[in-house]
Design a protein that fits this description.
With 129 residues, the protein is an alpha+beta fold. 29% of the residues lie in helices and 26% in strands. The protein is globular.
């Protein structure tokens, strides 16, 4: 786990820290080739410079965000914003199902939209994988 991600997690309440630590450990396990850093204030994992998954603290708990998640066509992920992102939210670590998370992370690796070049393409997304 990246030191900045570890510090982000440590700054959370004990219950939220448990969720964050579990997410970070599982993301690192399933996406070992992903680069992890704190980006725009929260932990994000990148594949070839393209953001694929991250999480952040909301009032209601921890939000897990997949940048290309709407293309996964998975129950449990809810659309976010005007692009292809989708989220799941967790109030406790017990809410997190490891098998489902692993399936979503596999899709995050295999199904990607090019967010890295979004500005260069003037807001137009192109599918990478």
């Amino acid at each position: 786990m990246h030191p900045d991600t570890r510090a982000y997690n440590a700054a959370q309440s004990p219950g939220d820290k448990a969720i964050c630590d579990l997410l970070a450990d599982e993301i690192d396990r399933v996406l070992p080739d992903a680069e992890n850093k704190v980006w725009h204030g929260h932990p994000v994992w990148f594949l070839d410079g393209n953001p694929v998954v991250g999480y952040d603290k909301l009032v209601s708990g921890i939000r897990l965000l997949f940048w290309s998640g709407q293309s996964f066509e998975e129950a449990g992920l809810h659309p976010v914003g005007k692009f292809k992102a989708a989220e799941a939210r967790y109030a406790t670590a017990d809410d997190l199902d490891a098998a489902t998370l692993h399936r979503w992370l596999g899709k995050a690796r295999d199904i990607q939209w090019d967010y890295k070049n979004l500005v260069k393409r003037k807001g137009r997304l192109e599918r990478l994988k």
